[in-house]
Amino acid sequence: MSDIEVRIADWQKDNADLRRIRETVFVAEQSVPPELEWDADDTDAVHFLALESGYPVGTARLLSDGHIGRVSVLRDWRGMNVGDALMKAAIEEAERRGLDEQRLTAQVHATPFYERLGFEVISDEFLEAGLPHVEMLRKRN
């Protein structure tokens, strides 16, 4: 496997790749209703695209309030540190923008992944799109 490159994506130019990844992961695999996956925040968010040998394999987004979300990696690339690379890029960009706290809504099964990146659970478990989630917070050291 080649090194994973993460770059800031252009919502317009990279839209087909961003949509393909998120639809595959959230809508097809996790049965998230499409109307819950796409929202008005997409147009103003900073989007990240992870590429392996130029092929888009993962995505995430950062909102202006420091909320990181829509972290998704295609099945064949899971376990290859793509999620780590996406999250590190999002955290770095948030801090570059002066956002010293980052928040996210994590699926419960993914909390250990986010905890390794410095996030702490700050809520009780709740359902979002029919899946168990928790709110998490990371503060800049």
Could you explain how this protein is built, in words?
This protein is α+β, with helices and mostly antiparallel strands. It has a domain of 96 residues: Aminopeptidase (3-Layer(aba) Sandwich). The mean pLDDT is 94. Helix content is 31%, strand content 34%. The chain is built from five helices and eight strands, in the order E-H-H-H-E-E-E-H-E-H-E-E-E. The strands form two sheets. It has a four-stranded antiparallel β-sheet with strand order 1-2-3-4, with helices on both faces.
Summarize the structure.
With 141 residues, this protein is an alpha+beta fold. 31% of the residues lie in helices and 34% in strands.
What is the count of DSSP helices, taking H or I runs of 4+ residues? Answer: 5
SSE string: EHHHEEEHEHEEE
Low-confidence stretches: none
Strand fraction band?
A: 25-35%
* DSSP summary, beta strand count: 8
Give the helix level as a range of percent: 25-40%
**What is the name of the CATH topology of the domain at 4-99?**
Aminopeptidase
Radius of gyration: 14 Å
Distance between the termini: 33 Å
CATH homologous superfamily of the domain at 4-99, by name?
A: Gcn5-related N-acetyltransferase (GNAT)
Determine the structural class based on helices, strands and strand pairing.
alpha+beta
Shape: globular
Name of the level-1 CATH class of the domain at 4-99? Alpha Beta
Task: State the major sheet.
Answer: 4 strands, antiparallel
Mean model confidence by pLDDT = 94
Query: Could you say what the CATH architecture of the domain at 4-99 is?
Result: 3-Layer(aba) Sandwich
For the biggest β-sheet, the strand order reads 1-2-3-4
Domain N-acetyltransferase: 4-141
InterPro entries: Acyl_CoA_acyltransferase, Bact_Acetyltransf, GNAT_dom
Organism: Stutzerimonas zhaodongensis
Pfam families: Acetyltransf_10 (PF13673)
